[in-house]
Write a structure and sequence with these properties.
alpha/beta, D-Maltodextrin-Binding Protein, domain 2, 5-stranded mixed sheet, about 375 residues, 6-stranded mixed sheet
């Protein structure tokens, strides 16, 4: 099973690499939608490699490498990884040493997944989408629009039975090649474009730059919009020149790229259609070979890192929104949008996905948690 999975993974990574070279929007594995994030205070290290925890690790028994694809030192991933290093080195008394890489092992998530599979990295942050092409179609449940109603709902599900079930599915379907150590987020996505959107009909006939997931494209098409492929690095120009009428992403990402300053990006509508999930991953076979003591230190550090990453993500949502408004964009608040009309379109897509992938019970877990 391991050999079959390795072949599938290699094929998937090769296709992801080709897609990136072709100028099309990279798959969720390449994290093309994620720009540099921002927090008021930068990490103390000031560099893209590891930061000091103040613990002497010169005699470490275990050296770990943790990495994300983000080069910015002010994004939530950076804070989460620094927290992991701090906690695991402190709890282990220096028996575990950690090197943190912020984009220095690769700026595409596909590169990080390859490094993890080769043993050149021990913990990586990645979008879940790449697993759909290596035999884990269930993971695309995270791509469904309006799956979660709030950050609280998202946390309740991911930290509860649903999150545990997804961990088991990933471990089983990948032959223990991937073990989910924590659920991280890159905030919540909204629509922004040339006009305000308060209901699905407002999207009719509008071109919208979307992520590459089929279920997400199906949703926007069902709203009457025209899903369009544009590379993330080319989206500012596409909005400015009218190549696309709109796009969708979280406040921090489009604020840093100044999409809201373009003619076709200045109206932000808080549709809150996608509370995003990112995975903190470790090779399960590597984890299983650790001592119980080492596992305990690492588990505790992963919990602390996850809490830190989420806190920074939520803080940056508020800060980025304020900046967007200060820059002159027009924001339609979530309370002024007909969310039920959007959900009426999203629900049948969710139901079909659940039925096709034998995940009706998991979908019900999520819906019940919102009540």
């Amino acid at each position: 099973m391991k050999r079959k999975f390795a072949v599938a993974l290699a094929t998937s990574l090769a296709l992801a690499s080709l897609a990136g070279c072709g100028g099309a929007p990279a798959s969720t594995a390449s994290n093309a939608d994620t720009g540099a994030d921002k927090k008021a205070d930068a990490p103390a290290d000031g560099g893209s490699a590891d930061s000091g925890s103040g613990v002497d690790t010169s005699a470490a028994e275990l050296n770990l490498i943790i990495a994300s694809n983000q080069t910015s030192l002010e994004n939530p991933y950076s804070y989460g990884m620094d927290k992991f290093k701090e906690v695991v080195e402190e709890k282990s008394g220096g028996k575990i040493a950690v090197t943190v890489h912020k984009g220095t092992l690769g700026e595409n998530e596909s590169e990080l997944i390859e490094k993890l599979s080769m043993g050149a990295a021990n913990l990586v942050v990645a979008s879940p989408g790449f697993m759909t092409s290596i035999g884990v179609p269930e993971i695309d449940i995270f791509s469904l629009e309006y799956l979660f109603d709030s950050f609280d709902h998202w946390e309740k599900c991911l930290d509860g039975d649903f999150g545990n079930k997804m961990k088991d599915i990933v471990t089983e379907k990948t032959g223990n090649s991937f073990r989910i150590m924590g659920y991280w987020s890159s905030s919540v996505r909204d629509v922004y474009g040339k006009k305000a959107v308060t209901k699905p009909d407002d999207l009719k006939g509008m071109t919208i730059r979307t992520q590459s997931s089929q279920v997400q494209q199906d949703f926007f098409a069902a709203c009457g919009a025209i899903p369009t492929s544009v590379a993330w690095g080319e989206l500012y120009q596409a909005l400015q020149q009218g190549v696309v009428d709109s796009a969708e992403n979280d406040y921090t990402n489009f604020m840093l790229k100044e999409h809201h300053k373009t003619d076709n990006g200045k109206f932000v509508s808080e549709t809150h259609h996608d509370y995003t999930t990112r995975l903190l991953l470790m090779d399960g076979s590597f984890y299983d070979k650790l001592t119980d003591e080492q596992k305990g230190w690492i588990d505790e550090a992963c919990v602390a890192a996850t809490a830190e990453e989420r806190q920074v993500t939520y803080q940056m949502f508020e800060e980025s929104k304020k900046q967007v408004i200060a820059d002159g964009a027009t924001v339609t608040e979530n309370a002024d949008i007909d969310i039920e009309a959007f959900k009426a379109i999203a629900n049948p897509i969710m139901d079909k996905f659940a039925e096709d992938n034998n995940m009706t019970a998991e979908l019900e877990m999520i819906r019940s948690a919102a009540k």
